[in-house]
Amino acid sequence: MAETGNQPTRIAIVGAGNVGSTFAYTLMLSGLASEIVMIDTNLSKAEGEVMDLNHSVPMTSPTKIWAGDYKDCAGAVVTVITAGSAQKPGETRLDLVQRNADIFKQMIPEVAKYNPEGIILIATNPVDVLTYTAIKLSGLSPNRVIGSGTILDTARFRYLLSQHLGVDPRSVHAFIIGEHGDSEVPVWSLANVAGMHLPDFCRLNGRGCGDEEQERIFAETRDAAYRIIERKGSTYYAIGASLLRLVEAILRNQNTVFSISSYIEDYYGIRDVCLSIPSIVDRGGVEKVIMLDLNQRELDGLRSSAEVLKGIIRQLKL
Ligand SMILES: NC(=O)c1ccc[n+]([C@@H]2O[C@H](COP(=O)([O-])OP(=O)(O)OC[C@H]3O[C@@H](n4cnc5c(N)ncnc54)[C@H](O)[C@@H]3O)[C@@H](O)[C@H]2O)c1
Question: In angstroms, rounded to a whole number, what is the distance separating the alpha carbons of residues 174 and 212?
Fold first, then answer.
């Protein structure tokens, strides 16, 4: 996979912090890319990460890894954006959004200038608002700009459900949709194991799946980042693994369904916002946003989530 014909498979990573370097490490171990370029305003940090990564190449697969600049995004199949600043003490959420949007104003046009054909994959928070911002700033077709969205929340949800149900997380089919954040929505009505809705699975297999269990599992899913940040300062392994899986689906044209954030043209009347819905991802980016058979409660939750995001977007100075 590392080469496509005679073309090297290049992945560019903007932001060599915890998320960017963890993703670079998983990508190098995967052998999916033959070239990895890391770009950061803190060049010394990017260089340090690159040196450390390069010293693991002899134990893994041949990969060219270097600290570069935006020109090096040229030809990258995917440019993964993990650059941004974290919330400062006393700063409101909106101040943070504006600060990261200002970083995007400088960064995204550069990526698009050197790589008008590539896919941009965004992890920087708040990811839904910044995915919308990147679409506006890049001029790329919206299906080529993807936010990691609730792929991580969905992974957390499946893991917690798997622990409760006693099955492999990969055998749990369940999604979190909407904002990657406090207004996200669990789609309980479609969650299943072995094709059985959870109430049936639980009844026939001696597990409890009542309102109390559901509330606890969802609260643990939604609040996981807070709990991790309290303990270790930031989260990066699971987002690194999620970004790798997305990049794999793109490179290998896998048509995989992920809950990712993308531009919503018209979804049950929700328009002109980026949020997460299970979507098919292939070599071209977002191939299709899947229509789900949501119940009224889930639909109301999704609409409120869209309103929260639109409220923030309206206040942004783009
Ligand atoms: N989407 C998700 O599920 C998810 C999960 C975890 C973290 N995140 C987000 O990822 C982002 C990065 O987190 P982190 O822990 O790696 O932070 P970090 O502070 O460790 O790294 C951020 C890096 O961005 C760089 N940077 C800042 N401005 C830049 C610019 N203009 N151009 C290039 N580089 C620039 C910094 O120098 C730094 O190295 C944050 O916004 C965080 O909230 C998202």
Answer: 18
